[in-house]
Amino acid sequence: MMTGIWLAVTIVAAIVEAAVPALVSIWFVPGGLGALICALAGGPEWLQAALFLVLSALALAVTRPLAKRLQKPGLVGTNADRVLGATAVVTETIDNLLSQGRVTVLGNSWAARSVQPQGTIPVGEKVVVERIEGVKLIVAPKA
User: Fold this and answer.
1) Residue 127, by phi and psi: left (phi above 0), alpha (psi -120 to 50) or beta?
2) Given CA atoms 25, 37, 6, 47 in this order, what sign does their dihedral have?
3) Per-residue DSSP letters for 80-114?
4) Which of 28, 92, 121, 124 has minimal CB crowding within 10 Å?
5) Domain 79-141, CATH number (from 2.170.130.30, 3.40.190.10, 3.40.50.300, 2.40.50.140)
6) Contact indicator for 4, 12 with CB cutoff of 8 Å
7) Helix, strand, or coil here: 118?
8) Alpha helical stretches, state H, the chain
9) Do residues 137 and 105 lie in contact, with contact meaning Cβ atoms separated by under 8 Å?
10) Where are the domains of the chain?
11) How far is CA 139 from the centre of its chain?
12) Which of 136, 135, 86 is nearest to 114 (CA)?
């Protein structure tokens, strides 16, 4: 009976791993195989369970560092990043106190705010894009 259980554990773990795009159950496959081999050889149930736990933990210890190395960093570049450092033209007066202002940069219109907390920048001025906060560009007057 234990051979059927270990076979089922191994197959289910492999199917779940194949169906999910992340490492969630791959560690149980070697554990299940080790326990299945032990059960087929007539080993006691406590040894089967111990092999399952030890081999699963060993597989986790080996694959986890590898998975972390292969995982891409959390930052994802977007096309919006290309406006950083670009020169923009103010098309609507930028006034942080009134939460208003727009600029045109690289042919696109953006909501904009000044890096200076209480500063205003008039229409027609050239500014440099310092950073992006949400859907707003934070700009500084061009020197």
Assistant:
1) beta
2) negative
3) GGGGTT-EEEEEEEEETTTTEEEEEETTEEEEEEE
4) 124
5) 2.40.50.140
6) no
7) coil
8) 2-19, 28-40, 45-70
9) yes
10) 2-70, 79-141
11) 28
12) 136
Tokens 């006034």 belong to which residue?
A: 95
**Who contacts 38 (Cβ-Cβ below 8 Å, separation ≥6)?**
47, 48, 51
Chain centroid, CA 37 distance in Å = 38
Q: Report yes or no: 58 and 28 within 8 Å, Cβ to Cβ.
A: no
CA distance 95 to 9: 63
